């Protein structure tokens, strides 16, 4: 289950798995104004498309009970 470590002649090799770097990574670059505007426009376009498809699709999904059901002339025996 636990493996025993073999003795190592160099101390830094034995401590290599516990090593923590004291070097901090460079800060992330901020997005430019153009990139932020592009992200907002893309998001608004996607939301507008979803809302538009919902608005245009709702009449097709609604059941209109005020008009009588259409019957073909063949079903009336004419």
Provide keyphrases for this structure:
78 residues; mainly alpha; 42% helix
Verbal overview:
It contains two helices and no strands. It is mainly alpha-helical and 78 residues long. The longest helix has 29 residues, at 33-61. It is elongated and about 100 Å long. It starts with 10 loop residues before the first helix and ends in a 17-residue tail after the last helix.
Which secondary structure elements does this structure contain, and how are they paired or packed?
Layout: H1 11-14, H2 33-61
Shape: elongated
Low-pLDDT segments, ≥5 res:
none
Percent strand equals under 5%
Approximate helicity band:
40-55%
Short account of what is shown:
Helices cover 42% and strands 0% of the residues. The chain is an all-alpha fold and 78 residues long.
């Amino acid at each position: 289950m636990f493996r025993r470590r073999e003795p190592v002649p160099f101390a830094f090799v034995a401590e290599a798995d516990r090593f923590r770097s004291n070097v901090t990574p460079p800060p992330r670059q901020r997005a430019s104004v153009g990139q932020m505007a592009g992200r907002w426009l893309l998001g608004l376009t996607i939301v507008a498309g979803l809302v538009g498809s919902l608005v245009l699709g709702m009449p097709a999904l609604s059941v209109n009970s005020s008009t009588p059901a259409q019957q073909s002339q063949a079903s009336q025996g004419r």
